[in-house]
Write a structure and sequence with these properties.
This protein is of the alpha+beta class and 169 residues long. The protein has 2 domains: 9-41, no CATH class; 49-155, Trna Endonuclease, Chain: A, domain 1 (3-Layer(aba) Sandwich). The chain has helices at 9-15, 49-62, 78-86, 122-133, 144-155, and strands at residues 22-23, 36-37, 68-69, 96-98, 108-113, 137-142. β5, α4 and β6 (137-142) form a beta-alpha-beta unit. The longest helix has 14 residues, at 49-62.
């Protein structure tokens, strides 16, 4: 029997749909193992949160709306993680911040999630509660289309009722 048998990528693409990628385990013994599905194979057919967020950012940019994304998420080495934490990056803070006051709200925060799947963490729930108590609108968007709906409804709230006692006039 062949030692270290591997499927060529060209053969794999002929046998399986484009998104399905398989790996064949290298055999150290004299027996062949069956193909194993790669960890990169995603059982959730819906786009990832990052893809949905990029689409939404592009849509906002096209419409002239400025947005800021938090530096949360992603994998970092320990030195970078400590540095960002000391700089104020906080776990659970919403993904997107839109500083346009509307209606009774000072601004809008959006937490992006996948269309199906994805849950809020305890820290996210705590941040959402805190921001709402401070007069901000906080919403969870299940994908790009939902984020777009939230933004359209938020902008329809009308002008923010400004306070005469503000520092800047």
């Amino acid at each position: 029997m062949a030692k270290g048998l591997r499927l060529k990528k060209s053969n794999v693409s002929k046998m399986f749909p484009k998104k399905t990628v398989i790996k064949t385990a290298t055999s150290k013994s004299n027996s062949l193992k069956s193909p194993k599905f790669s960890k990169s194979l995603n059982p959730n057919p819906y786009p990832k949160e990052t893809t949905e967020q990029i689409l939404f950012i592009e849509w906002l940019t096209i419409h002239g709306i400025k947005v800021s994304a938090s530096a949360n998420g992603g994998k970092r080495n320990i030195i970078e993680a400590v540095k960002l934490k000391r700089m104020g990056v906080a776990a659970g803070f919403p993904d997107l911040e839109i500083n346009i006051p509307r209606g009774q709200y000072h601004g809008l925060f959006i937490e992006m999630k996948r269309q199906k799947g994805g849950q809020l963490s305890i820290k996210q729930i705590e941040w959402h509660r805190y921001l709402r108590e401070q007069g901000y609108c906080v919403e969870v968007a299940k994908g790009f289309e939902h984020a777009k709906e939230i933004m359209i409804k938020y902008m329809a709230l009308g002008e923010f009722h400004r306070c005469d006692r503000c520092f800047h006039r």
